[in-house]
Write a structure and sequence with these properties.
The complex is a heterodimer. Chain A contains 14 helices and two strands, in the order ββαααααααααααααα. Chain A has one domain: ABC transporter involved in vitamin B12 uptake, BtuC (Orthogonal Bundle). In chain A, a hairpin with a 2-residue loop joins β1 and β2 (11-16). Chain A is globular, with a radius of gyration of 21 Å. The longest helix of chain A is centred in the N-terminal third of the chain and has 35 residues, at 60-94. By secondary structure, chain A is mainly α. Chain B has one domain: ABC transporter involved in vitamin B12 uptake, BtuC (Orthogonal Bundle). Chain B has helices at 2-36, 44-52, 58-92, 104-117, 124-146, 150-174, 176-186, 199-223, 226-231, 236-258, 263-276, 280-304, 313-332. Chain B is globular and about 60 Å long. Chain B starts with a helix and ends in a 5-residue tail after the last helix. Classes of the chains: A mainly alpha, B mainly alpha. Chains A and B meet through α6, α7, α12 and α14 of A and α6, α7, α11 and α13 of B.
Chain lengths: 340, 337
C-alpha cells in the first residue's frame, strides 16, 4: 500500500504515502532553515536565545531577532511559497514546464516600471514599488487581452508573452545601456531580487494580500486538479474552464506582483520549484502544495546563503536562489538519467 | 521511406518553391536597400555599380568596405539564428524553444563576464573567442545532462542558464567595471562588430547551414516521434547529436559576432512554418532566407531611426518581430510541432 485514505463522514482524502513523507520532510526543512535564519547574522544567536527572544522575554538582542531577522525569514518563506504556487499555476495552465509568471511579461514589465522610476523619476522606494507593480500588471493585462480570442489557449498565451517579453527586455537593456553606470548598477541589483532590509512595515499588506489569494486558490483547488486531467475531461465533469483559467491567472499574477513589489523580480523560483517539487513528491501533474513547500525552502535557503556567502556583503537573494535552484535541477535530471 | 514521405507533400512543393523564390527576391532587395541607406544615402544604381565595377570613389568605399561587411554579417547571423531555431524546436518538440534555451547565449555571456573580470582582453576579437568557448562548453554540458529526452534537454538548458546567469550577475554587481562592459555586449548589435575577425564564424555558419539541409530528412522522421523514426531506420541518437552540434555552431557563431539577439531564432521558425508546413528541409530553407531578411531590415532601420547614433539592432528586431509574432499567433493559432 502506497496510499493512505482518510475518511470522515462524506469527506474522504486519498494521499500518496510518498507525498505525505515529502510534505513532512519539507516542513521540517523549512522550519530548520527558518531557525537558522533567525540565528544567523552579524552576531550569532543560539537557538535558546532565539526562542527566548520570540517569547518576548529577552531584552536588547531580542529586538534584533524580532524586528530585523524575523520579518526577513518570514518573507523568505512566504514569498518563496507564493512564487512556487504561481509557477505551478502557470505550468498547469500552459501545460509546459517552461511556463512561469515571467513568461507573461510580469518580471520584465516590472523591471521596465522600476527602470522608469529610477531614470526618469527620482527613484525613491515608493516610486520603485509603484512603478514595478504598475509595469507588471499593465504588461500582464496586455498579454492576457492579446491572448484572449475566443477562449484562452495556454500555448497562445505563452507565445504572445514571449513576444512581449522580448520587446520589453530589449527596451530594458537599452535603458540600462544609456543610463549612468551607478543608476545602471542600482537597477541591476534591483532586478536580481533581494530581501535585504525588509522590515515589518513592508510586510503587513503583502502578507494580507497573499493570504487572501491563497484562500481563493484553496477554494478552487478541486477544479484545478480536475482541469489538470485535460480540458475535455474538466469540462465534462462540470468545470467552467474559461472562468477557472481567468481566476488562476489572476491569482498567479497577484502572487507574483505582490512579491515583486517588495523584493524585486526573484527569477527562477517560480520556474524551478514546481519541477523540483513534483519530482521529489513523486506526484503526477504539477501539484500546488509541493511547489509551495519547495519554493519556500528554495528562497529561504537562498537568502541564508546570500547573506553568508560574501559576508558582510549581502548578495541579492535572486542571484543565489537562481544558482542553487539551477544546480539542484541539473542534479535531479542527472539522477533521473541514471535511474532510467 | 522517401516515397512515403514525399508523396503527400508533392502537390504543395511547387507552391513552396514559388514562395521560396519570392523570399529570395525580397532578400536581394533588402540587401541592396541596406547597402544604400545610412548616414550617407547612395542610389541603388550606385550600389550595384560599386559592387560590380568599382572605380574607387568614396561611394564605392562606403559600400564595399563599411556597409557590405556589415550586411554580410547580418545575413550570416540571421540565417544561423533562424535555422538554429528550427532545429531546436524540432529537436525539443517545443514550439517555445529558441537557441538560447540550450544555454548558448548565457554560456557566452558567462564567459565574457569571467573574461573581463579576470582582466582578459576587452578587444572585439577577445570577446568573440570567449563567446565561442562559453557557448560550446555550455552546450556540451546541457547535452551531457539532457541527451536522453527532449524535455530533459530543455530543462537542463534552462537550469544551466540560470546557474550561469546567477553567478555572472553576482560577479557583475560586485565589479562595476565588468558590469559596464557587459551591458554593451548584452544588448546585441551589429555596430562596430564588423571589425572583429568574422571570416571564420561566417564560414562555420555556411558549413553548418549545409549540414542542416542535409540532416533535414532524418529530422523529419525524428519529428514524427522516436518510435516512428526507429521503424523508418533512422539512427535517432545520431541525428539528435548531429542536430545539437549544428545548433551549437550556428547559435554560438551568431552570438559571437552579433551578441545575444536570439529572439530571431524564435520568431523566424514560427513564420517559416506558415509557408513551409511541417517539412523540416523546407523549414530550414525558409528560415535561412527569412532570418537574414528580418535582421537586415532591423539593422537598416536601426541605422536611420535616430538622427544621431544608432538603436541597438536587437531592440529593432524585437519591435519588428514581436508584433508580427503576436499577429501570426492570433491569426493562425500557435502551430504545435
Amino acid at each position: 500500500m502506497t496510499a493512505l485514505v482518510l475518511r470522515r463522514g462524506p469527506v474522504s482524502f486519498r494521499v500518496e504515502r510518498r507525498t505525505l513523507v515529502f510534505t513532512a520532510a519539507a516542513v521540517l526543512v523549512i522550519l530548520g532553515l527558518g531557525l537558522l535564519g533567525l540565528c544567523y547574522g552579524a552576531v550569532w544567536a543560539s537557538p535558546a536565545k532565539v526562542f527566548a527572544a520570540l517569547s518576548g522575554s529577552s531584552g536588547g538582542s531580542g529586538v534584533v531577532i524580532r524586528d530585523w531577522r524575523l520579518p526577513r525569514v518570514l518573507s523568505g518563506v512566504v514569498f518563496g511559497a507564493a512564487l512556487g504556487v504561481a509557477g505551478a499555476i502557470f505550468q498547469g495552465i500552459t501545460r509546459n514546464p517552461l511556463g512561469s509568471p515571467d513568461v507573461i511579461g510580469l518580471d520584465s514589465g516590472a523591471y521596465t516600471g522600476a527602470l522608469i522610476a529610477l531614470t526618469v523619476l527620482s527613484g525613491t522606494s515608493a516610486q520603485l514599488t509603484t512603478g514595478s507593480v504598475a509595469g507588471g500588471v499593465v504588461t500582464a493585462t496586455a498579454v492576457y487581452l492579446l491572448a484572449r480570442k475566443g477562449g484562452l489557449s495556454g500555448l497562445r498565451l505563452v507565445v504572445i508573452g514571449i513576444a512581449v517579453n522580448a520587446m520589453l527586455t530589449a527596451v530594458n537593456s537599452w535603458i540600462v545601456l544609456r543610463a549612468e553606470l551607478e543608476v545602471a548598477i542600482a537597477a541591476g541589483s534591483w532586478s536580481a531580487g533581494s530581501l535585504n532590509g525588509v522590515g515589518w512595515d513592508d510586510l503587513a499588506i503583502p502578507f494580507a494580500v497573499l493570504a487572501m489569494l491563497l484562500v481563493l486558490l484553496a477554494l478552487r483547488s478541486q477544479a484545478t486538479h480536475q482541469s489538470g486531467l485535460g480540458g475535455e475531461v474538466a469540462v465534462t465533469t462540470g468545470v467552467g474552464l474559461e472562468r477557472l483559467r481567468l481566476h488562476l491567472v489572476l491569482i498567479g499574477v497577484g502572487c507574483t506582483a505582490t512579491v515583486t513589489a517588495v523584493a524585486g523580480p526573484i527569477a527562477f523560483v517560480a520556474l524551478a520549484a514546481p519541477q523540483i517539487g513534483r519530482r521529489l513528491a513523486g506526484a503526477p501533474g504539477v501539484p500546488l502544495l509541493p511547489a509551495a513547500l519547495t519554493g519556500a525552502a528554495l528562497l529561504q535557503g537562498g537568502d541564508l546563503l546570500a547573506q553568508a556567502l560574501l559576508a558582510p556583503v549581502a548578495l541579492p537573494v535572486g542571484v543565489v536562489s537562481t544558482a542553487i535552484g539551477g544546480c539542484y535541477l541539473i542534479w535531479l535530471l542527472t539522477k533521473e538519467v541514471r535511474r532510467t | 521511406m522517401t516515397a512515403v514521405q514525399a508523396a503527400p507533400a508533392r502537390p504543395r512543393s511547387g507552391a513552396r518553391g514559388g514562395w521560396l523564390l519570392l523570399a529570395l527576391a525580397v532578400l536581394a532587395a533588402v540587401a541592396v536597400l541596406s547597402l544604400a541607406v545610412g548616414a550617407h544615402a547612395i542610389a541603388p544604381a550606385g550600389v550595384l555599380r560599386a559592387l560590380l565595377e568599382p572605380t574607387g570613389s568614396s561611394d564605392d568605399l562606403v559600400v564595399r568596405d563599411i556597409r557590405a561587411p556589415r550586411a554580410l554579417l547580418a545575413v550570416g547571423a540571421g540565417a544561423a539564428l533562424g535555422v538554429a531555431g528550427v532545429l531546436v524546436q524540432v529537436l525539443s518538440r517545443n514550439p517555445l524553444a529558441e537557441p538560447g534555451i540550450l544555454g548558448v547565449s548565457t554560456g557566452a555571456g558567462f564567459a565574457i563576464t569571467i573574461g573581463s573580470a579576470l582582466g582578459a582582453t576587452t578587444a572585439a576579437a577577445g570577446q568573440l573567442v570567449l563567446a565561442v568557448v562559453g557557448s560550446v562548453l555550455a552546450m556540451a554540458l546541457v547535452y551531457a545532462v539532457g541527451r536522453r529526452s527532449p524535455l530533459r534537454l530543455v530543462l537542463a538548458g534552462v537550469a544551466l542558464s540560470s546557474v550561469l546567469t546567477g553567478v555572472s550577475l553576482g560577479l557583475r554587481l560586485l565589479l562595476p567595471d565588468v558590469f559596464d562592459e557587459y551591458r554593451f555586449w548584452v544588448v546585441g548589435s551589429l555596430a562596430g562588430r564588423e571589425q572583429a575577425p568574422t571570416l571564420l564564424p561566417l564560414l562555420a555558419i555556411a558549413a553548418a547551414l549545409l549540414g542542416a539541409l542535409l540532416l533535414g530528412r532524418q529530422l523529419n522522421a525524428v519529428a514524427l516521434g522516436e518510435a516512428v523514426a526507429h521503424t523508418l531506420g533512422v539512427n535517432v541518437a545520431g541525428v539528435r547529436t548531429g542536430a545539437l552540434v549544428l545548433i551549437t555552431v550556428l547559435a554560438g557563431a551568431a552570438t559571437a559576432v552579433a551578441g545575444p539577439i536570439l529572439f530571431v531564432g524564435l520568431i523566424v521558425p514560427h513564420l517559416a512554418r506558415r509557408v513551409a508546413g511541417g517539412s523540416v528541409p523546407w523549414l530550414v530553407a525558409f528560415a535561412a532566407v527569412l532570418g537574414p531578411v528580418l535582421l537586415l531590415v532591423s539593422d537598416t532601420v536601426a541605422r536611420v531611426l535616430l538622427p544621431v547614433g544608432e538603436v541597438p539592432v536587437a531592440v529593432v528586431t524585437a519591435f519588428l518581430g514581436g508584433p508580427v509574432l503576436i499577429w501570426a499567433v492570433r491569426r493562425y493559432g500557435a502551430a504545435p510541432l
